């Protein structure tokens, strides 16, 4: 898994009733875009995250030319 600053990580709920969590990558701590990542959640708190198989990366959109 590779991500860049500004990408979003979506962590899917693993049990019935658990919602997906989305966070934004604010810093890549691993080499060449690899984990761990410092992420910021929608409520403003930050954490260091090493995503597992229940996560996906939503890459930021490339600027339109």
Automatic annotation (TrEMBL):
InterPro entries: DUF1918. Pfam families: DUF1918. Residues 1-21, 46-65 are annotated as: Disordered. It comes from the Bacteria. Residues 1-57 form the DUF1918 domain. Residues 1-10, 56-65 have a biased composition (Basic and acidic residues). This is DUF1918 domain-containing protein. The lineage of its organism: Bacteria, Bacillati, Actinomycetota, Actinomycetes, Kitasatosporales.
């Amino acid at each position: 898994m590779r991500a860049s600053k500004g990408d979003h990580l979506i962590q899917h709920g693993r049990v019935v009733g658990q919602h997906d969590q989305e966070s934004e990558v604010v810093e890549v701590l691993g080499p060449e875009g690899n984990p761990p990542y410092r992420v910021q959640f929608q409520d403003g708190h930050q954490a260091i995250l090493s995503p597992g198989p229940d996560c996906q990366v939503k890459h930021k959109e490339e600027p339109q030319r």
